[in-house]
Each structure stands twice: as structure tokens, then as C-alpha cells.
Amino acid sequence: MSFSSALFRLADNGNSASLASRYRAHRFRLFTGLLRACPDSPRILDVGGTAHMWVRHRDQLPPGASVVLLNSEHVDSASNAALFHTQGDARDLSRYADGEFDVCFSSSLIEHFPSLHEQQTVAREIRRVARSYFVQTPNRYFPLEPHFLFPGWQFMPLPVRTALLQRRRFGWMPRAENESQARDAVTRIRLLTRREMGELFPDAVVTPERFGPPVRVNDFETLRDGV
To answer: 169 is in which domain, residue-wise?
Structure first.
């Protein structure tokens, strides 16, 4: 098995035995801790998520829980009556009132907004519409960039990354057909540091996710229990 194939297997969320899936299951257990403090039949907003995860973990949800799945692109309606799909922009949740949701959940989304200003807007909207929230994002200083699955990718000069992506695919990112496409794919992701997460969510607890003794931090979970 090649090094690249081994990384794919470790990072494949579709494989329940993968390292990535085990971390996701651990995160969801942390998230359900917020739900225990919620009133009956809690309303949950998932910004950028999929129905598959909620169906998979439905036994961990309290009775009567309902989930609104908000994504930038249209998604077919979920088959589960407690799951509601809607199309929208995480930077503008003005359709929802302040504190309309008991909890907001967002996993590996905020880094896909390419500027700090946009990430600040997303964070502000999450904090506004939900009384509690759980936001997870990869740590910028983790050695393996989780989207391109290449060590130190995020620290390479932009022209180098742009040129490389035109030559072959990296991780989950397909090979770009031209320089413009490659540059767009590379700059579309802005990984955050722990300090930045603390500044984006100043009323939350920022919890590092450990990855063995040599590499202490993998991802951040930011939690606010405000119910």
C-alpha cells in the first residue's frame, strides 16, 4: 500500500473504522453533552453538515430533537421527519432570530471561508442564532493538511501549491485544469490557529484534540454551553 493510499484510508470519513471516523464519533459525544442541558425537544442548526451523520447518531439525540441542515447548495429533502434541509449562506443567517436554536453544530466548515473577515462573520452569526454551539475546525499547525493530505502544504508558498495542483491531485482535491482553477482551490481554504478560534468565539471553551504525545493538537472544538 502506498503512503498516499494509507493516508486516504486514515482520513476517510465514509469508513467507520478509519481514524477520522473515530475522531468524529468522539466529537459527537462531546456535542451531546451540550444537548443534556437543553430543554425538551431541542432545536439544532447544523451549518454545513449532512443528513448521514445525524441518521447515524440518531440514537444519541434526545427525544423530540429536530435538526435544520443548512448548506450553500441545494440538497434533496431528508427522509427523516426530524431533519430539514435548507439552502443558505453561513455568513448571512438573517432568516433566523437571535437565539432561535438551542444549539448550533458546525464541523470542518469555517476554514472553507477564505478570509478572516468572512470567518468572523460566520462566527458572529453562529453565536447570534444559537444559545449554545459546537464548532470544530482543523488546526493550522497540525503537520498534515487535512484537505490536500500533504505534510506542510499550508506553509508552502502560494505559487508552489498552485503549480503542484496543476500537475496532480492532492488528497480530496482533484488536479486543476489551469492556473486560475488551481489558485482558487488553494486559496479557498484558510486554516485557523487556536488563538484565532479563541478570538472568533470569545465566550466559548476552546478544546484541543490530541493526536498522540509527539503531536499534541489536531483539531479544535469550540463549545459554549449557554442554555
So the answer is: 148-188
